[in-house]
Specification:
By secondary structure, the chain is of the alpha/beta class. Helices cover about 30% and strands about 15% of the residues. The protein has 16 helices and 20 strands. It is globular and about 70 Å long.
C-alpha cells in the first residue's frame, strides 16, 4: 500500500475564484470539499505532484503518526468513517497517505487541484478587495478569499554546518524523502538529529546499515508507542459511536481522549509515582503527560517524571556511558515535543550503532567523505540523513511573497513573531485565513480536530459574509493585540517556556523566540471561537 497515484496531466488554475486554497493536505482537501458543497468557485494549488501534504513528503522508513489512527481522521462524513478500516493503533505513513488518496477519490477532489505548482506571490488589492496570486508557471489567479492550508511542518531545514554541499555520498532529509525505495544495506550511514523523525528512522536504518553513526545534540524524552494491530470488534464499536466519541475529543484539552489526573506529582510517594508512571509506560503513547496534573506547570513535578524516564533508559541501554548520553537533562519533561518510539533505545545495544554526542564534541564541518567534529574525530559515511526538522508555523508562509494592505509584507508584519486573531487571521491582510497556525492549539492538539474546526469556522465566515453582501473581513488590530497577549499569558506559567524547541522557533537562527501556540485547550478555544462567531464575528472589521 504505497498511497501513490499515477501521474496525471496538470490542471491549470482558473483565472478567477471566490476562494483560493493553498495546500492539498488534510486542511486543503477539507476546505475544497466544504466550499464546493457551499457552491463557491474554489481551487487548490500545491507544490507536490499529488495530495497528502506532510504525509506526501515525509515517507522515510519508520514515519508514523503519534496520534491514534481512530482519532487522526476526518469526521465530516459518516459514510467515510464507516468505510475506512485502520489497521494499527498508530498509523504508518503509507496507510495515512492511502487514506488521504481514498478521500480525494471518494469525493472527486483532484479535478479542482493544480499540482506541481508553487504560489510565488500573493498581493492584496484594496480597490477590488481581491488577492492576486502568481505561480511559478506564470499563471495569475484572482480570488476574493485565500485560505492558507500550507501546514505547520512543511519547510525542511538543514543545519547551518559548513561543507554541506561538499559531501560526495548520498544526502537525504527526512522531510523530503525520495519516492523510490532507498536501501542502506552494507553502507555506513550517519543520521543527524534525534527528534521525532530521527527516533523513528534510526531503528529502521540500523537494521540495514553496515554501521550507523547517530549524531545527537539534544536527547529527547522518548516513551514507548506500544503500537499494535486494531481488532475488528474495537473498530466496529468506535464506528458505531463515532460522533459521540469525536465530540468528547472536541471538548477535551488536547483534542483526544486523554484525561488529566487530579493528582500532583509532588504529593504522591515514590512508590505511587513509579506505579502510576509504569502503568502509562506499559500502555504506551503520549498520555503519560497527563499522569499528574502539574507536569507542565511545575518544574519539580516534571523532574520527578523525567527521572523515571532516565531510569528506564539506563535499564534498557546496556552501556552505561551511552545510556547517560541518551538521558535528557537541562530542560523539563513535557516542555518539548514528547517523542514516541518503537525499538529506539534498544537500537543502541546493537554492535553496528555508535552514538556521537555532538553537544560535547560539536560537528565542525561536513567533509566529502563524512563528518568531522571539533576534536578532530572523523566519521566516514556513504550516506548522510538529516532528521533536523522544519521551519515551523511560519516557514511555508514566508516562502511566498505575501503583501497585504499598503504593500506591507507578512514577513515585515510578523518580524517580532506571528501576530494573529484567534490564530485564524492577521491585521493588514484582509480575507486571508490560516488553518491550524500560530495563535491556535495547532500542533499541540490532535491536529485533525483543529483542522476540521478551523476549516468549518473559516468557511462558515466566508458564507456569512456572502449572505450579507460583505466583501472584506479583517482582524481588528486591538482584538489581535489582546489575543496575542492572551496566548502569551496562558503559556507563561507553563514549562513550555523552558524548552528550547521548535515550538519557540529556537531551531532557526535569527527567528524571533516567541511561544505562539494556544495552550488554553481545544475545548476552551472552540468555545471562544463560537462566541466570536455568535457575536457577528466580533473582532473582525467587515465592510
Amino acid at each position: 500500500m504505497t498511497g501513490s497515484t499515477p501521474t496525471r496531466p496538470r490542471v491549470s488554475p482558473p483565472p478567477r475564484l471566490d476562494v483560493l486554497v493553498i495546500g492539498a493536505g488534510f486542511s486543503g482537501l477539507y476546505a475544497l470539499y466544504r466550499l464546493r458543497e457551499m457552491g463557491r468557485r474554489v481551487h487548490v494549488i500545491d507544490a507536490a505532484s499529488d495530495v497528502g501534504g506532510v504525509w506526501y513528503w515525509n515517507r522515510y522508513p519508520g514515519a508514523r503518526c503519534d496520534i491514534e489512527s481512530v482519532e487522526y481522521c476526518y469526521s465530516f462524513s459518516q459514510e467515510l468513517v464507516k468505510e475506512w478500516n485502520w489497521t494499527e493503533r498508530y498509523p504508518a505513513q503509507p496507510e495515512i497517505l492511502a487514506y488521504i488518496n481514498y478521500v480525494a477519490d471518494k469525493f472527486n477532489l483532484r479535478p479542482s487541484i493544480t499540482f506541481n505548482t508553487r504560489v510565488t506571490t500573493l498581493h492584496w488589492d484594496d480597490a477590488t478587495t481581491t488577492w492576486t496570486a502568481t505561480t511559478d508557471h506564470g499563471e495569475t489567479v484572482v480570488a476574493e478569499h485565500v485560505i492558507m492550508a500550507t501546514g505547520q511542518l512543511s519547510v525542511p531545514v538543514y543545519p547551518n554546518i559548513p561543507g554541506l554541499d561538499d559531501f560526495a555520498g548520498q544526502r537525504f532529509h527526512t522531510g523530503m524523502w525520495p519516492h523510490e525505495e532507498v536501501t542502506f544495506h552494507g553502507k555506513r550511514v550517519g543520521v543527524v538529529g534525534t527528534g521525532s523523525s530521527g527516533v523513528q528512522i534510526i531503528p529502521q536504518i540500523a537494521k540495514q546499515a553496515a554501521h550507523l553513526y547517530v549524531f545527537q545534540r539534544t536527547p529527547h524524552y522518548v516513551v514507548p508507542a506500544n503500537n499494535f494491530p486494531l481488532d475488528e470488534e474495537y473498530l466496529e464499536n468506535i464506528k458505531n459511536n463515532f460522533e459521540e466519541y469525536r465530540e468528547i475529543a472536541r471538548n477535551s484539552p488536547s483534542g483526544t481522549h486523554r484525561k488529566i489526573s487530579e493528582k500532583s506529582a509532588l504529593e504522591v510517594s515514590e512508590e505511587e509515582l513509579n506505579a502510576t508512571l509504569q502503568e502509562y509506560w506499559d500502555r504506551g503513547g503520549p498520555d503519560i503527560l497527563a499522569a499528574f496534573k502539574d507536569i507542565r506547570t511545575n518544574e519539580a513535578a516534571a523532574e520527578r517524571v523525567g527521572e523515571f524516564i532516565r531510569k528506564k533508559i539506563r535499564e534498557i541501554v546496556k552501556d552505561p556511558e551511552v545510556a547517560e548520553k541518551l538521558c535528557p537533562k537541562g530542560y523539563p519533561f513535557g516542555s518539548r515535543r514528547l517523542v514516541l518510539e518503537i525499538g529506539y533505545y534498544e537500537t543502541f545495544n546493537r554492535d553496528n550503532v555508535t552514538l556521537v554526542d555532538v553537544k560535547a564534541d560539536p560537528i565542525e564541518r561536513i567533509t566529502p567523505s563524512g563528518v568531522r567534529t571539533e576534536s578532530g574525530a572523523e566519521y566516514e559515511v556513504d550516506a548522510l540523513i538529516f532528521a533536523t526538522g522544519f521551519d515551523a508555523l511560519t516557514g511555508s508562509l514566508f516562502n511566498i511573497d505575501i503583501r497585504g494592505v499598503n504593500g506591507v509584507s507578512l514577513k515585515e508584519a510578523w518580524q517580532d513573531g506571528p501576530q494573529t486573531y484567534l490564530g485564524i487571521a492577521t491585521h493588514g491582510f484582509p480575507n486571508m485565513y490560516f488553518v491550524a497556525g500560530a495563535g491556535s492549539p495547532s500542533v499541540l492538539s490532535n491536529v485533525m480536530i483543529s483542522i476540521e474546526h478551523h476549516v468549518e469556522w473559516i468557511t462558515d465566515h466566508i458564507e456569512w459574509l456572502r449572505q450579507r453582501g460583505l466583501h472584506r473581513s479583517e482582524a481588528d488590530v486591538a482584538a489581535q493585540q489582546r489575543w496575542t497577549e492572551h496566548v502569551y499569558e496562558v503559556a507563561k506559567p507553563t514549562t513550555f517556556m523552558k524548552g528550547n524547541s521548535w515550538y519557540t522557533g529556537a531551531n532557526i537562527p535569527g527567528k524571533p523566540r516567541v511561544f505562539s501556540l494556544y495552550l488554553g485547550g481545544v475545548g476552551e478555544y472552540r468555545k471562544i471561537c463560537s462566541d466570536v462567531a455568535a457575536r457577528d464575528y466580533e473582532g473582525f472589521v467587515t465592510s
